[in-house]
Amino acid sequence: MGTPCHFALFDLQPDFRLDLDQLATRYRELARAVHPDRFADASEREQRLALERSAGLNEAYQTLKSAPRRARYLLAISGHEVPQEVTVHDPEFLFQQMQWREELEDLQDSADLDGVAAFKRRLKVAQEALNEEFAACWNDAAQRDQAERLMRRMQFLDKLAYEVRQLEERLDD
């Protein structure tokens, strides 16, 4: 008996397309039920179990909430273990990454807030397109390599989006 599947924890079918509002609502319900404060008067063992359940629930929620982490998790539970670090054999995307990086550096150098906002919108469109592509192919064994490639692209865009948010905060100050 291993740890329950993250999806099962939230009474969801394993799928890439999720209703994130429903996920958040279910998370809040479950979090209240296993919150360690509720076990303040319980035995030490029950307190420890409550802490473990709370931590497990939080980890499951963070994984399912994030598109790239959810993609990686789906590939893993469908028997496709994805190595953490791997050479990306994706020259087209590597070129695209370089272009995005240069553009972001230029926006940073020129402190162009409007440009950053436009960049962020384009990034969001690219992320949504990747999510759709992944959703369409992750469950097809014949397209596993493509699904993994898409998941890696999603991870990169997620990291880039984080850097864009940091840049926005710096420029806002």
The gyration radius over C-alpha positions equals 19 Å
The low-pLDDT segments are none
The largest β sheet comes out as: none
Shape: globular
Tally of discrete structural domains? 2
User: Strand percentage, roughly?
Assistant: under 5%
Query: Can you tell me the CATH architecture of the largest domain?
Result: Up-down Bundle
From the helix content, strand content and strand pairing, which structural class follows? mainly alpha
- Give the averaged pLDDT, no decimals: 90
Question: Can you give a write-up of this model?
Answer:
The structure is a single chain. The protein has 173 residues and is an all-alpha fold. It has 2 domains: 6-65, Helix Hairpins (Orthogonal Bundle), CATH 1.10.287; 91-172, Monooxygenase. It is built from 7 helices and no strands. The protein has helices at residues 6-9, 20-34, 44-65, 67-77, 91-110, 113-137, 144-172. It is globular, with a radius of gyration of 19 Å. The N and C termini lie far apart (51 Å).
Q: What's the SSE blueprint?
A:
Blueprint: H1 6-9, H2 20-34, H3 44-65, H4 67-77, H5 91-110, H6 113-137, H7 144-172
Helix pairs in contact: 2-3, 3-4, 4-7, 5-7, 6-7
Organism: Pseudomonas putida
Domain J: 5-77
InterPro entries: DnaJ_domain, HscB, HscB_C_sf, HscB_oligo_C, J_dom_sf
Summed up:
With 173 residues, the chain is mainly α.
Top keywords for this entry?
single chain, 7 helices, 173 residues, Monooxygenase, 0% strand, mainly alpha, Helix Hairpins
